[in-house]
Each structure stands twice: as structure tokens, then as C-alpha cells.
Sequence to fold (464 residues):
Amino acid sequence: MIHSPSTHLTTEAWEHIINTFQNGIYITNAEGLTLAVNSAYEKITGISAQQVIGRYIDDIVREGILSTSITKDVVATGQEVIREQRVQSGKYVVLRGVPIYKENQIDLVVTSVQDITVINRLQTELSHSRALATQYKERLTELEGSDTFVAESTEFRAAIALAQRVAKVGSTVLILGESGTGKEVLAREIHEKSPRHDQLFLKINCGAIPENLLEAELFGYEGGAFTGAKRNGHVGLFEEASNGTLFLDEIGDMPLHLQVKLLRVLQERTVTRIGSTKAISVNTRVIAATNQDLEQMVKEKKFREDLYYRLNIVVIKSPPLRERKKDIPGLIHFFVRKLNEKYELNKQLAPELIGAFMEYDWPGNVRELENMIERILVTSSEDVISLENAHLPWIIVGPSLSAQEVARPFEEITLKEAFDRVERQMLQEAVKRFHTTYQVAEALQISQPSVSRKLKKYGLTLKK
Fold:
């Protein structure tokens, strides 16, 4: 039933007029008494005319039929007010309230309600498409010139094989390994070999983002949920990656209170944005990774036990480079080729330099190896980079030179003589690079008195 706000028109006339509009129409007087709504308003908002007509707007908001109203703002300012809002039906709308004056006083407030749900969805789909395009472009760049993993070692082959097996199912996966071992490579392989391969693969480093921002990025928030929040709110990564894969790197750094929210998402497959009470269904596969000992963290109460067991369904261990040294020559070849193309170079590494890399343990793993190769390629003036002109850090080149010095199959040499040669060579390199016996002791991991004694033994002195 519609009450006419004018004595000049019949109720039927007003009903006919406002029902011709495709946008919703909501009319109140200056005191906030609801006088009329049209059928489009009922359809868009899911609120019937009987719920609001003849009632004051403050009472309607207080009962939760409307979450907010712009009528009072229009009356207070005497001007047009525009606001975006999510209504009872779940749709997103733009409210536009305008004052109607009579004898220089506000007589009515007419609010139009435009459904922008489709526009928002199209914007989200466009954002999703752009993200996919960027992801595919990045992945093509990564794979350019290489159709497979560099995996000659049994250890890394086993990790890849397990990743490819679990890709076909939707289980949560936990990847363990030191920094730089290729945990993200394994996570991407799981995604790309899964039925979700044509959907988004999103990554977030849980240790690289401040706690308050991490929560907003993961779970999203409603408009106005906190100071600085976007007016239209923010879609979290769990929603964004629904039907795809979310890679939570460094999961061990996630704050405890966010671990509770993550556990709820994994168990209930729903996410609740900050500032909202509505649960949103998501179909997101989670792959987590860490270089920390989660089991020990559970014992120390630094990581939730229930979340640990929820993540610990399928565990893949990414081996450190020192345990898969067979992969080093192939990785070197791959990185040299990639960097030559990137910087338009034509350089190669001499065999003895590759041999030096084979002997080093690479505590920074594959990432350290790639960075080292880039460093020597861009700084060396030679096309063939040898051990002598590579200008490697002593920690890498020292042991290699020593091994080269003693590896003479046709020379008879005692074990003690071989040991003395290695020791002398390492000390010679050390005195070139360090200025104190304490620095040498730290580099060689021996005591300072031992350094002093050995330098005297070989007649070596430190640089001034």
C-alpha cells in the first residue's frame, strides 16, 4: 500500500508514476516518516513496502530492516547525498537522496536506489582476468627456454613426483625446506598439474606483511571497517583465489590470532570479512610453506597444534642444494642461458669454476646460486669466466683452490703433506682478506690462539 505524499495526486497516480522507474524509489517527509516506495525498491532490496511504509526511518534502522539511511543526512545538510551500500538482499546499491523544498523548507526526501551488483561483478571479473593474464605472462617468462625442472638428483625428483601426485586431489599441502630451496616452484607445480590450473595462483608471504595488513589481505574487509579502509571494501585473497590456489609462504610467521581464523577457513570453507558477520563460501586450495620447525613451535606454544595437524595432511620436503649437488651443473646452465638472454650477453663459465660451485655448500640454496651467477656474469669483462677472474668470495673459492692444489693423481703425497697444503692455502687466502686474527678465526671457525699459532707456523702475516 502506498501513501500519497501530495494532495494534488491520488494514491493510484503516485503508484503509477513511481513504478515507472527502473531504480528503486524511497520517499519520506522531513521528519523521516516513510511515505512511499516503488516495486523496483522491493525487488532490489528484498524489503517489502509493508515493512517500511508509515514508519519512521530511525525505527526501521534500529530494527535492522535497513542497515543505514541517508535521509537524516539530506535533511541535516539540505543537499544531495550519495552513498554506496550493501542491502538486505545481498546486492550492492548506490543511494542518491535529494531534498524536495516547499516554501524554502524541506518537505520531502526522495532517495533513488540503483543496483550496481552487476557492475561490481564485472569489475571483479575484469580484475580476475587481468590477474590471470599477468600470471600467465610471468609464468611464460619463467618457463622460456626450459620445459622441465632442473632435477638430476634423486632427492629433488622425489619431491617433484610427490607434488605431481597430490596435485590431482584437493588436499592441503605443507612444503618444508630452507629458504631458497624452491618451495614456491613446488607449489606452482601442484597448481599447474591440478584441475585448478586455469584459475588464479596467488601468493602471500606471511612474514613480510604487518599483522593488521595481513589480516585485511587474507580475509578482506567491508567499507568503513577501520580507519583508512577503502569506501567500497576489499576482497581478500581467499575470496580472490576461490576455485584456485592460495600459497601461504612462511606460515610459521603468522600471528596466533590469525591462525585461528585460518583454521576456521580450512575447516568450514567460509571466510568472514573484517567488519562483517556474513560468512562467504570459498573453494580455495591452500598450500603452505615454511623454513621453520613447526613441530617444535607447537611445543613452545608459538604455533597452534590444531592448525599444525590441519596443515600436516600432505608434507613435501624441498631438499637443500647441498643435498642435491647433482643439480648444480644443470642449474648453472639454466641460469647462465637465462641471464645471457636477459642482458644480451654471450658468456660461459669455465669447468674449474663450475667445480668450485660443486664443492661449496650454498647455505642460501638455489637463490644464492642464481644471485652469484648473475653477479659474476654482469661484473666480469671476460666471455669465458674462470676461477681467477670471477672474483668470488673467499668462502667459496678458498676450499676449491685447496682441493685443486692437492688433487694430483700422479704425485705421491702423504696425508699430512696434503693437509698442510690445504691449511696453508686457506690461511694465505684469509690473510689477504682479513685484518685481524679474530676475523680469520671466525671465518675458519677455529679459535683465535689457533690462528696465531698456524700463521707463525707457515710464516704468514696479516695485512696492515
Summary: Confidence is low (pLDDT under 50) at residues 1-7, 143-148, 401-410. Residues 109 and 415 are 99 Å apart (CA to CA).
